[in-house]
Amino acid sequence: MKRRLLLLGCLLAVAQRAFADAPALLLAGRYRPGIDLRDWWVSEKYDGVRAHWDGRQLRTRGGERIAAPAWFTAGWPALPMDGELWAGRGRFEHAQSAAAREQPDDAQWRALRYMVFDLPAHPGSFDERLAALRAAVSALNHTWVQAVPQRKVAGDAELQALLREVVRGGGEGLMLHRGASLYRAGRGDDLLKLKTHDDAEARVIAHVPGKGKHAGRLGALMVETPEGRRFALGTGFTDAQRADPPPVGSWVTYRFRGLHEGSGLPRFASFLRVRSDEARFRSAPR
Q: Catalytic annotation on 211?
């Protein structure tokens, strides 16, 4: 018991230090039809690990240092960059595993790309930042560092057609960035995401024991949203995850299909994964 409490205390201390170092990032809201899309840039939403380059090192969204190999970041500019460590469509676990290791695995990192989509310290609009971003990535000339392709669409019908094309190809969805917007940390309406399903994050507050075929294992996670709403998350788990569930206090991502009108709770919520910047606190190789 004492050993477990000591380990928990160490993990909490690490998490607190990481929180203090967390970068101030622009976060996405949700797309709703009806906006004038002529001023918006559209790109694929990459299913990877959000990674902020502060000019010296890579950090996760939560502030954890990412131990990238020296060759991966060699020659990178002092200019802060916002991007995604991506291993390709359907390969999130590979990117997460590579980013979580305290000792980088060269073979894993050779399969990663750093997809740059913004320059947080640039004072201009996204239109201006995009031009500067493309120039910086071009000057760097590393095949594993790429500027995220951005395009314009004529309207919602073309946007929805592009979404279907990306999802059919195994992609996760789309991101929309308002061309006239400045880089402002926090969640707002200048960056939007569009997917065929909704997802969100919640903090684990309790484990609900399983019954029947799940007796002796996890039945559900009791979670709390950032707004303080609590609900049970009981589907989407593998047998291994039910045997070793995300710990109390960790953050998880879940999928859902809209909200109940009365309670505001998610409909058909299903566990997706432990949030990527929490992975190191669980079972990352040392």
A: no
